[in-house]
Amino acid sequence: MTEKRLTKKELTSMFLRSNFLLGSFNFERVQSLGFCYVIIPALKKIYPEGEERNQALTRHLEWFNTQPWLTAPIFGVTAAMEEEKANGKDIDGSAIQAMKIGLMGPLAGVGDPIFWGTARPVLAALGGSLALTGSIVGPLLFFILINAIRLSVKYFGLFYGYEKGMEIIKDMAGGRIKKLTEGASIVGLFVMGALISKWTSINIVLQATKMKNAAGKVQVQTVQNVLDSIMPGMLALGLTLFVAWLLKKGVNPLLIIIVIFIIGILGYAGGVLG
Amino acid sequence: MSVIQIVLLLIVAGITGIGSVVDEAQTHRPLVACTLVGFVLGDIQTGIILGGTLEMMALGWMNVGLAMAPDTAIASVISTILVINSHQGIGEGIAIAVPLAAAGQALTIFVRTITVFFIHKADDMAKKGNYKGIEHAHLLAMSLQALRVMIPTLIISLISATAVQDFLSSIPEVITRGLQIGGGIIVVVGYAMVINMMDVPYLKPFMYAGFLFAAFTNFNLVGFGALGLIAAMVYLQLKYNGQPQVAAPAGVVFDDDDLDA
């Protein structure tokens, strides 16, 4: 029997398909059907028609869920393991399954803070603030940068996972993942703190003090002026922490959003907010 | 609206619908979706400004695990159509976008539930080795997500602009202005989502450090990103390289740092 090896063609096809991984996201097995869809080019190449291929297809329809961009190395390792198995190496199907489940958690732990917690909000705030002035640079900057990051992670992640194969587990075990997760969380939290202060606009226009200064001019201070002189952004911080607490208690974010809008309307009508 | 415009709008709607489920190219983010709709309708400027405004409200919205954020795809596409075609202000745009985000969320949850049916179909097909069928099941489920945005977009495109205009103009100023004020505040919900996701108590001081820096300096976002990165590097070095390196044998200098990049 000749060896059946994966080539760049199958791996590239997997990379292209992985752009639609979450297309069949569902509440029973989440990304399972998508995972199978992405790996089909590899399975088709290494398994001839028959029972082994059918089992492989079934294997990759199992429950799967992680940060979508960081599935790339998992796809690489899975392809490498399936290739070994197809070439007669003694790898149990359940070992492949276990590897997928084992990598899922740690990679989501890294991917969520890096991409959803830091890269996207930062680039979106950058692009959004430019867009407020009507500049096309805003949306372009966001779209190009986030996709440059995403595509390189997905492409190199896939090939890295394929070349390293099972060795990737060793990389993970060396405490590297923990370091990466901590590092990403620090950047994310730091920038989030900055965003809270700079990119939230709350303005309490209610009058706090009114007095005549030395020149005889009437000076009005709003509550916001007073608060800002103590610590700019403190209301935003307090509100953020309060909402975080509510979300943890299981309150629906949509409900919170609606309540904030009602406060906005009532506050404006009552002359408190402006 | 011309027929060509409606067709183009439906294409944009389909792309953002798929975008919001796959979460890859970020076409469902208001910044991109509103700009595209503005481009199709010949008023890209308004699209960009509305996109920026909505983006700043939805900064931290994300789907993590099984939790769904309000849907930005339907909200962005339809509110931009209404604002441009009915000559409304950004305040009206926000007023329409918010209930649409809620409706969009309900719709995507509905589609994600009926997709379970496709999984069971795929199970049967896998047993027979019908990989083509599995591919079709996946793509069909994905096209439902496209239709989820395309159908409401088509309905809105066919409603007469003047009727919509009358309706939108009847919204009192206190509502639109109040929603705009609320729009400046609700971004905290997104921040809270991000903070909860990175819920590591011993790292929380970094958030307060970021807050203080922003409160009392004039750094821009790039500056804050760089500062955060430096903080992370210093922290990791102090934490992990502080101990004397007992186990390092002489001569081993190679450290494959691929993942740290």
TrEMBL record, chain A:
Signal peptide (residue range): none
GO BP term (any one): phosphoenolpyruvate-dependent sugar phosphotransferase system
Alphabetical UniProt keywords: Cell membrane, Membrane, Phosphotransferase system, Sugar transport, Transmembrane, Transmembrane helix, Transport
Localization (cell): Cell membrane
GO cellular component terms attached to this protein's record: plasma membrane
Major localisation: membrane
Membrane spanning residue stretches: 122-146, 186-206, 226-247, 254-273
PROSITE patterns cross-referenced by the UniProt entry: PTS_EIID
Entries under InterPro entries matching the protein: GatZ_KbaZ_carbometab, PTS_IID_man
Entry keyword annotation includes Endoplasmic reticulum: no
The keyword Isomerase is annotated on this UniProt entry: no
Membrane topology classification: Multi-pass membrane protein
Listed PANTHER family: N-ACETYLGALACTOSAMINE PERMEASE II COMPONENT-RELATED, N-ACETYLGALACTOSAMINE PERMEASE IID COMPONENT-RELATED
Protein name: PTS mannose transporter subunit IID
Species annotation: Pseudolactococcus chungangensis
Gene expressing this chain: manZ
From TrEMBL, chain B:
Compartments (UniProt record): Cell membrane
A GO cellular-component term linked to this record: plasma membrane
Keywords assigned by UniProt, alphabetized: Cell membrane, Membrane, Phosphotransferase system, Sugar transport, Transmembrane, Transmembrane helix, Transport
Bilayer-spanning residue ranges: 30-52, 64-84, 96-119, 139-162, 174-194, 206-236
InterPro entries: GatZ_KbaZ_carbometab (IPR050303), PTS_IIC_man (IPR004700)
Major localization class: membrane
Swiss-Prot/TrEMBL GO biological process terms: phosphoenolpyruvate-dependent sugar phosphotransferase system
Topology with respect to the bilayer: Multi-pass membrane protein
Signal peptide: none
Keyword Cell membrane: yes
The keyword Transferase is assigned to this record: no
Protein name: PTS mannose/fructose/sorbose transporter subunit IIC
Native species: Pseudolactococcus chungangensis
